[in-house]
Design brief:
Layout (H helix, E strand, L loop, with lengths): L2 H21 L22 H18 L10 E4 L4 H4 L6 E8 L13 H8 L8 H15 L2 E5 L18 E5 L2 E10 L9 H21 L8 E8 L2 H10 L5 H4 L3 E8 L18
Length: about 280
């Protein structure tokens, strides 16, 4: 066979084979490079959108009131010292300030789980729900308190001839049971607040603390009690501070008194609740 014809035949065979190979991959576009399994990596671009969606969801969760893990209002002053006092046989006096601003809301979604339980719980009488809720919120924020029992759940010995005083809340701090009694050093501003008023209040409440500690049943027995006093004015705060060290040692016993001065917290003292950021009228 002449050389030219041989080369032509060889070229024809080669081009036929190449054309057949291309025809066997009908999905392949001319000039396209097959990425194989890594071709799916192109879809990974959508992962950026997915990540953004997760981030948006997390941001939305943080914006929800029930995701808040902080105290309602702004707390300043002494905080986180009660655990160190539990083993001491002596009393203690702690002061702090809790400030509320316009726009904040005293509402269940803005409270801790323990605060929410107290928000809904019936108490043994009176209009002290707000102060008891905020007492727990302060102790939770400062001392990691967890709620064990509400006022009506704590068990005591049967009534006798003595006072049947009870405490308001049973909490756990640093693995120990702690009783919490809550009160308000408050009178309308036009009536003033004297040292004699503070003596009367603290004497009554500390007697109740000591009596409830005697009566509580072993299953709920606490190692110590906290008397949490809320004060709405400088005069009320100062009177409590002056009077406490003058009280009889047996009356003060080993109780930890927490004095919290509120500002903009009229809802703790008067009913109906004024807006946060304002005082009682």
């Amino acid at each position: 066979m002449p050389r030219a014809r041989y080369l032509a035949a060889l070229f024809f065979v080669w081009t036929s084979i190449f054309a057949s190979a291309c025809a066997s991959e009908p999905g392949a576009a001319p000039g396209a490079v097959d990425g194989g399994p890594e071709g799916d990596a192109g879809a990974a671009v959508d992962a950026g959108d997915a990540g953004a969606a997760v981030g948006d969801a997390a941001a939305d969760a943080n914006d929800r009131p029930d995701a808040r893990d902080d105290i309602l209002g702004t707390l300043s002053g002494t905080c986180g010292v009660i655990a160190a006092e539990l083993a001491k046989p002596t009393p203690a006096f702690v002061e702090n300030t809790l400030s509320f601003a316009a726009g904040e809301q005293y509402a269940k979604p803005y409270l801790t789980p323990g605060g929410q339980t107290l928000f809904d719980a019936a108490n043994a009488g009176g209009s002290s729900t707000e102060s008891e809720v905020m007492s727990f919120e302060v102790l939770h924020h400062c001392d990691g308190a967890t709620l064990l029992k509400t006022e009506t759940q704590i068990k005591y010995e049967a009534p006798d001839a003595g006072s049947n005083a009870i405490t308001d809340i049973l909490v756990e701090i640093a693995g120990q049971k702690v009783g919490v009694s809550v009160t308000r050093a408050y009178k309308p501003a036009n009536l003033g607040y004297t040292d004699a008023d503070a003596v009367t209040l603290l004497t009554k409440k500390l007697e109740g603390v000591n009596r409830s500690s005697e009566r509580v049943l072993p299953a709920d027995k606490w190692v110590k009690q906290v008397l949490h006093v809320f004060a709405a004015t400088d005069a009320q705060e100062a009177a409590v501070r002056r009077v406490w060290p003058t009280l009889d040692a047996a009356l003060r016993a080993d109780t930890v008194v927490v004095l919290t001065r509120t500002t903009g917290g009229g809802f703790v003292y008067c009913d109906p609740d004024p807006a946060l950021g304002s005082e009682c009228p």
